[in-house]
Structure formats: structure tokens, C-alpha cells
């Protein structure tokens, strides 16, 4: 393959290479004219590459960026993968890696020990990285001088990927973060293998401090990836080091919080490590006290609040408090008493509900659910969840009146996101009851999300059409066009015409003009549609003749 990289902008090529290294290219196989692959991204995207004589002729990707005629990162990732496979094929035709390794081994075996030592000294003198590897792996002691060299290796990466002022732009940011991750995996793991835990901790901290203060365009989130690797190294060191070293690590974390060691959001990783990894009783008790202060601040709310964790996301304060009580050895009765004292918080009741459901204590679960609907009346989402749980319980019991009553409550008091409970209600209603409930469902503002699916299910196409006439957007008409076109072709056509007239005034770029042409073509498929579309196009040419892009798109569309 030749010169294919010239087809991409530099930053797109870099992101494509990142996808390739992450293994995002799936199912690559040859086709009659080139290659087809699936690339894992925000979703899975289809990529086709057409080639002739080793050159790229055409490329297609199903992602939104490529739909606008751009060469995207998914295409680049596939081309990197193709290039690698082609190189492997060439290698297979020549000398295989095993043969090369065997050949090198045979050469080394023929070299005398003295000559080999001399050779290693020579390349170590010329290459600082080789020298660093030798010192880290084989020095009798990792002294301050060697630690300084290891830290300089981190500084070297900053210099390589940054500009003269030390700023790392988005084109180099991800590669820089990968380089740091590899450095951690190589150097810190070697130190851990040698049981040099203090030095491994110091080097990890130096990397963490570097990424915690560096000026970088971190659009792809590489900093958090490196921070997570640092966290994993801290954890590995803590699991293996002596008690004395654990205490030193604990003291380091305590002394480096809230002292501008790193930017504020990076301190979250340090606080998380203290919270989740140390078993020091003094620290756990301090965290317990801190949580109590946070919880008691929620004086009137039934929500006990959450603590943000950079590594674990939002953690519920009560759940976290209960876990700490277990780690500190509180008795089961003390934990139960704490839950009783904090009954007003929804999370405590939800724990009790789940435990009763798991143990088959349905009456107690029902009692707590009904109480919770009252206590949490200011939180619609919670009330809906309680009501759904009650419906699930009542559905299995013989008393169908209480089941129907809860369904009525859920359908008319809680926002609906699907039709499941509405049609459970229909099953337990008479036809006369259902007619009344159906009208009530249609009129409820809480049911907007299910309005059109409900009307479709009920075959209420005329009311659906009347609702669509009042809408500004066209999404729902497109969604139900097929069924409505058969029943009301002229009315549907006229809604599209009204939409086009309104949107033509607001359109101001080529993409919007293309969308207008799509709907103009659609109108031609309706009764008298060709005539109507021609009238609209004629009017646009007269009114918007100065919009050259619009006139161009009209011509391309055949108007």
C-alpha cells in the first residue's frame, strides 16, 4: 500500500492509529475489490476499503463523520490493520520470528563472555534507555542516582511529546499517555519484582505528579487512564510491601492531600485510595466521621447524598458508611440500629425492601413500599420505582383489586416510558372502563413519551394525524409515515409541505439544504406530489436565488 496516510488529516490519522492499537478493528476480511471490517467505536461501524494496484480507490464508513464526505478515524484504523497484516504476510514468506530468535541465540552462544560483556558495555554507553534497563534490573541497589535517572525518563517523555513550553496538544496527547503507561508497566513492575517497593512507590508518584500538573489537551481522556494505572501500581505495592512501608505509604497520602501536589480533580484518586485500600483503623474512623457530617447535612431530604470518586463514580453516603462499619467490625445489631436511626433515607428503606423480598417476607416488603411512597413523595422517580415493585408483588397474589388499584396509581400518577403497565391495566378492565381510561391516558401530559406508540397500538390514526399537524418537528411523522400515508395520503403530504415552507426560511447551510431536498423528493411520491414539489422548487428559486449552495443542491436533486 502506498501513500494512503496522505488521505487523512493528521489528527484523524492519529486517532485512527489509536483505535488500531486498542484492537477496535473487528472482522477484517478481503472482498472482491478490497476489504471489509467492523470498527468498534461509540457503536459498531461498517467500513469498506476498495483498492486497486495497492492504492486506495474508494472508502466508506457508516459513522456520521464519514456521511458528510470525510475520511474518518475508523477508515484509518482499518488501513493500519491491513498494513500490519500485509507486513506479517511478507514476514511469513521470508524468515519467521522464531527463526530469527534462534539465529540471534546461536550468534550469542558463539561470542565469548568477555566479548559479550564488552559489547553490552558499549551499547549501554551509547543508549541511555538500555543503560536504564540494566541499572533497574541488575543493580545491586536502586540508589538515589538511579531513581533520578528513572525520573528523568519521565521528563524525557514530556520533552518528546510536548512543545518548547511543555504543552502537549491533542495530536500527541494520547501517544504521550500510552508512553507513560508503558513506562509504568515496564519500570515500576521491574522494581516491584525486585521487591524495591519504596522506589516503585516513588516512581509511580512522580508519574502521577507529572500528569497531575502537565499542560495538555486531554480530549480523549488519556490522563484518567494513566491515573488508573498509577492507582493499580499503588494497590500492587500495598498488597506486597511490609507493614512499615504500608504505614509510610499511608503517611504520604495523608500529607499530600489538599497541598497542591496535583490539580484538584486528580486529588480524588488519592482520596479514593485512602478510602478504599487502607485498613488503618484510625483512617477508617476519620472517614466514618467525615461521612456522618455529610449525611447529617441532609436535614430535610430523604436523599443522604453521594460522595464523588474519580475511580468509582458517585457512591451513596449511607451505603459507604455501612461498608465502613463492617470493615471496622461493628456488630450486626449495631448496623441494624444505625439503619433504624436513619430510616428517613430512601436508600435504607430500599435495602430493607430488597432483603425482605429476598427472604420471601412479602407483607413487610409491601408495608415498607407503601410507607416509602409517602416519605418520598417529592421524588417522582422513586415513587414510580416503589409502585412498580408493588405491582410485581400484587401480580402474583390472588387479590386482583389491590393489583388493579396499584396499576391505576402507576398509570395515572407516574410518568410512562413504555406501554407495559398500561396494557396490564387494560387486561383487568371492562371495555367501558377502558374507554374512559384511554381518553384519560391521551390527555395526561405525563404520557407524552408514549402518546404516539399508544395511539398506534389502539389504531387511533385520526387523533394521531391531528397531533402531528400541531408539531414543529417532523420526527414523529417520519416514524409513522408508512401507516398514515395509506390512510391519509393528502393530509400527510400537506404536513410535509408546511414543514418545508417553514424550514426553508431557517436553513442556512448545505447539510440543511440537502435535508430539504430529501423531503421535497418524498413529496413527489404522494398524490399530485410532483406538481406540488415543482411549485415549491419554483418558489424557492424566486425567493432564495442568492443562496448559491441551496440552488446547487436543488439542481443536484433534479429541481
Q: Can you characterise this structure?
A:
By secondary structure, the protein is α+β, with helices and mostly antiparallel strands. Helices cover 68% and strands 7% of the residues. The protein contains 28 helices and six strands. The protein has a four-stranded antiparallel β-sheet with strand order 1-2-3-4. β2 (34-40) and β3 (44-52) form a beta hairpin. The chain starts with 9 loop residues before the first helix and ends with a helix. The model is unreliable at 90-95 (pLDDT under 50).
Low-confidence stretches: 90-95
Largest sheet: 4 strands, antiparallel
C-alpha geometry: flat
How big is the Rg? 33 Å
| Order of the strands making up the biggest sheet | 1-2-3-4
User: Beta-strand level of the residues, as a percent range?
Assistant: 5-15%
Task: For the record, give the distance between the C-alpha atoms at the N and C termini, rounded to a whole number.
Answer: 42 Å
What's the oligomerization state?
Answer: single chain
Report the total helices. 28
Number of strands: 6
Can you give the helix content as a percent range? 55-70%
Average residue-wise pLDDT = 89
The class by helix and strand makeup works out as alpha+beta
Amino acid at each position: 500500500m502506498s501513500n494512503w496516510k496522505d488521505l487523512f488529516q493528521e489528527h484523524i490519522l492519529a486517532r485512527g492509529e489509536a483505535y488500531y492499537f486498542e484492537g477496535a478493528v473487528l472482522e477484517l476480511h478481503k472482498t472482491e475489490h478490497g476489504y471489509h471490517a467492523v470498527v468498534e467505536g461509540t457503536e459498531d461501524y461498517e467500513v469498506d476499503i476498495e483498492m486497486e494496484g495497492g492504492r486506495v480507490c474508494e472508502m466508506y464508513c457508516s459513522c456520521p463523520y464519514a456521511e458528510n464526505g470525510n475520511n474518518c478515524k475508523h477508515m484509518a484504523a482499518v488501513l493500519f490493520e491491513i498494513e500490519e497484516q500485509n507486513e506479517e504476510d511478507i514476514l511469513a514468506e521470508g524468515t519467521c520470528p522464531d527463526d530469527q530468535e534462534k539465529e540471534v541465540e546461536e550468534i550469542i552462544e558463539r561470542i565469548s563472555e568477555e566479548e559479550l560483556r564488552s559489547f553490552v558495555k558499549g551499547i549501554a554507553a551509547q543508549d541511555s534507555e538500555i543503560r536504564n534497563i540494566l541499572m533497574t534490573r541488575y543493580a545491586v541497589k536502586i540508589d538515589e542516582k538511579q531513581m533520578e535517572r528513572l525520573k528523568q525518563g519521565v521528563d524525557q517523555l514530556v520533552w518528546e511529546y510536548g512543545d518548547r513550553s511543555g504543552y502537549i496538544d491533542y495530536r500527541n496527547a494520547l501517544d504521550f499517555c500510552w508512553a507513560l503507561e508503558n513506562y509504568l508497566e515496564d519500570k515500576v513492575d521491574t522494581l516491584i519484582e525486585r521487591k524495591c517497593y519504596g522506589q516503585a512507590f516513588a516512581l509511580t508518584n512522580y508519574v502521577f505528579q507529572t500528569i497531575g500538573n502537565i499542560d495538555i489537551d486531554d480530549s480523549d481522556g488519556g490522563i484518567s487512564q494513566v491515573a488508573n494505572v498509577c492507582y493499580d501500581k499503588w494497590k500492587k505495592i500495598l498488597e506486597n510491601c511490609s507493614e512499615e512501608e504500608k504505614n509510610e505509604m499511608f503517611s504520604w497520602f495523608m500529607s499530600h492531600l489538599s497541598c497542591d501536589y496535583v490539580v484538584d480533580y486528580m486529588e480524588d484518586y488519592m482520596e479514593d485510595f485512602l478510602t478504599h485500600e487502607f485498613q488503618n483503623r484510625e483512617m477508617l474512623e476519620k472517614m466514618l466521621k467525615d461521612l456522618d457530617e455529610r449525611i447529617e447535612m441532609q436535614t430535610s431530604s430523604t436523599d443522604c447524598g453521594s460522595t464523588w470518586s474519580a475511580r468509582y463514580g458517585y457512591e451513596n453516603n449511607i451505603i459507604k458508611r455501612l461498608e465502613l462499619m463492617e470493615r471496622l467490625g461493628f456488630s450486626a445489631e449495631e448496623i441494624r440500629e444505625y439503619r433504624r436511626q436513619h430510616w428517613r433515607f430512601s436508600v435504607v428503606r430500599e435495602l430493607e425492601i430488597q432483603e425482605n423480598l429476598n427472604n420471601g417476607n412479602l407483607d413487610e416488603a409491601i408495608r415498607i413500599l407503601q410507607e416509602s411512597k409517602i416519605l418520598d413523595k417529592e421524588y417522582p422517580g422513586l415513587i414510580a420505582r416503589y409502585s412498580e415493585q408493588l405491582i410485581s408483588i400484587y401480580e402474583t397474589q390472588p387479590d386482583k383489586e389491590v393489583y388493579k388499584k396499584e396499576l391505576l396509581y402507576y398509570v395515572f400518577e407516574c410518568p410512562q416510558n413504555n406501554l407495559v403497565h398500561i396494557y396490564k391495566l387494560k387486561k383487568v378492565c371492562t371495555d367501558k372502563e377502558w374507554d374512559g381510561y384511554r381518553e384519560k391516558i391521551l390527555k395526561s401530559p405525563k404520557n407524552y413519551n408514549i402518546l404516539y406508540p399508544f395511539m398506534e397500538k389502539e389504531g387511533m390514526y385520526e387523533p394521531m394525524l391531528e397531533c402531528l399537524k400541531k408539531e414543529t418537528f417532523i420526527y414523529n411523522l417520519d416514524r409513522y409515515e408508512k401507516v398514515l400515508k395509506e390512510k391519509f395520503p393528502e393530509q400527510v403530504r400537506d404536513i410535509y409541505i408546511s414543514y418545508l415552507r417553514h424550514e426553508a426560511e431557517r436553513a442556512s447551510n448545505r447539510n440543511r439544504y440537502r435535508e430539504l431536498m430529501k423531503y421535497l423528493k418524498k413529496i413527489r411520491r404522494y398524490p399530485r406530489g410532483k406538481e406540488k414539489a415543482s411549485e415549491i422548487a419554483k418558489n424557492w428559486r424566486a425567493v432564495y436565488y442568492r443562496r448559491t449552495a441551496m440552488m446547487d443542491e436543488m439542481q443536484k436533486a433534479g429541481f
